[in-house]
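Revision sheet: structure tokens.
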Amino acid sequence: MQYFQKMKGFSSSPPAPGIQEISWSWLGAFLGIATVSLIHYNLLEQTDLIMVIGSFGASAVLIYGAIRSPLAQPRNLLGGHILSAIIGVFCYQTFQGEMWLAASLAVATAIGVMHATKTLHPPGGATALIAVLGGEKVHELGYLYVLVPVASGALLMLVVALLINNIPKTRKYPEFWL
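Predicted:
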């Protein structure tokens, strides 16, 4: 019975953000995703490279909408994505004959490594999984996937976060670097 009691929660919901906070979050997310999307669709479309991956949408929620979260800080954004991408590519290349195993090992190992390196960034789990399940275009990239789209895309989104999140006096980003 005590086990189920823990599922009731222990506090009330936090207050809703104001319209100004929502607006800045929206603007940052729009510009961050627009930056990587413009490069993807206007510069890389004729190549085998990609710049937009699904996990960047989740990163946008953190680095533009939850800027004080430890999970949204530059170390976590960059380290979480890059380490998870390396792990995901390794797991795909090593266990591609057993995709269920490659996918499971990629996500679980990414979480463990992010914890151990203090780079926990939830979208990193998706970045590892995309390396395994991402299809032929992602698989053909091999370890280049770590650089383009992962590291370069996350870095571009970080630059936008630094610029946009520090415009209003009520916002400050980052909370810490290392």
